[in-house]
Fold:
Amino acid sequence: MEKNIYVIYDRNVEPFARKLADGRPALAITADEEHKTMDTVLDICRWLLAQGANRDALVWAVGGGVTTDLVGFAASIYKRGVRYANYPTTLLSQVDAGVGGKTGVNLDGFKNMVGVTKFPIYTRILPEVLETLPPRELRSGAAEMLKTFIIENKGGNYEKAVKVLSEPQVNFGALAPLIEAAAGVKRKIVEQDPYEENIRRWLNLGHTYAHAIEWYQHTHGEADPLTHGEAVAVGIVQAALLSERLGLCKPGLAEKLRTDLRACGLPTGLPCPEDELEAALWKDKKAEKGIIHFVLIKKIGKVIIKDLDDLHQPTE
Structure:
């Protein structure tokens, strides 16, 4: 058994994390968007320093996507970089955040504005922990899974996922292979384009509007804001509507996606007027030199990247 392992976990999964840690040094953190900041990253680094963690340390991140982001970022800067591994405990992190190597924290309400790309040495997918998730958190991950299968729909996984996720009681046995498939799609894309210079941008489907929605809700102090996955679901519909306006897909795609997402318990409508999101859309990481690298949908299983200068007409 490898020594020099340090476990950092979301306090919401403490019983599972403590059992996994098995006596190893462990730190509980508050893993939510409000605490997804440099302050938390520095607190993690201070704890590692107090524990005597050296350059050979291996840090386990046990929790959802906020946890893996925070811990991965801390591991990338502590003593100029130590190893870390992900133990994602939410559906969202198992199919998305825990796989791709992106780490980062929020800055002044804007999503993931500070961060680095650092790949975990491994990610352990543990489907059994999903059975303890609150239904809303499970649905939040469902949005990222469906997003992945809109990008690549090998074997009809999109249709299979909609069927499983729309059942009143989720069949976790049927969900497990879909988790592996979604993680596999992301892993394949990341391996081909680790630093998001080309096709890795496909994985941003739905996220341009999602990040703007999250900024809006943060700055307006929404009492019950959409989760990240819920915001992504809304963003997917917005991407489909824009794809239809630009003639990139057949009419009706947005309505089909809206129907499927609703069947899975996800919201599909903007929580505020679209023009109020404008400022955040142009401050998103995907905006460069007056254009947004917007991921649009030709059909389920095929997406493209369009450089848009006004979200209505492509830049030639």
Notes: The two ends are 57 Å apart (CA to CA). The longest strand covers residues 291-299. The first helix runs from residue 14 to 21. The beta strands are 5-10, 26-29, 58-63, 83-88, 105-107, 110-114, 287-288, 291-299, 302-308.
